[in-house]
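User: Reviewer 2 asked us to show a designed sequence for the structure in our supplementary figure. I'm pasting the structure tokens here. Could you produce the per-position amino acids so we can include them in the response letter?
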């Protein structure tokens, strides 16, 4: 579903998106830049270090990533549509039913 023409503009906002194995999962992990050897490919441990030691740069980059999604009304509409489609699919599926005791 995410790879359809309708959601192409949304997916293109991700820098080198990685499609997860779940129903609707696309992530952009480690794509931060601090003029370091890990630029663009940070693992959690190194990203946490840079976030703690260079918080202004981390916050600035994070804000830029979030703003791509929330400042554009068309993108916000696509996210809403995707959420609604996800709810419909999950409602029809028994995949996430409550476990029996």
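Assistant: Here is a per-position design you can include in the supplement:
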């Amino acid at each position: 579903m995410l790879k359809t023409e309708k959601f192409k503009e949304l997916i293109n906002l991700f820098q080198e998106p990685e499609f997860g194995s779940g129903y609707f999962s696309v992530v952009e992990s480690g794509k931060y830049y601090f003029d370091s050897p890990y630029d663009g490919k940070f693992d959690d441990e190194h990203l946490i270090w840079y976030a703690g030691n260079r918080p202004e740069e981390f916050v600035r980059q994070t804000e830029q990533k979030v703003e791509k999604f929330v400042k554009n009304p068309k993108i916000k509409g696509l996210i809403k549509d995707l959420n609604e489609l996800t709810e419909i699919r999950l409602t029809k599926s028994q995949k996430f039913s409550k476990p029996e005791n």
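For the response letter, you might also mention the following. The chain has one domain: 5-92. Residues 52 and 58 are 8 Å apart (CA to CA).
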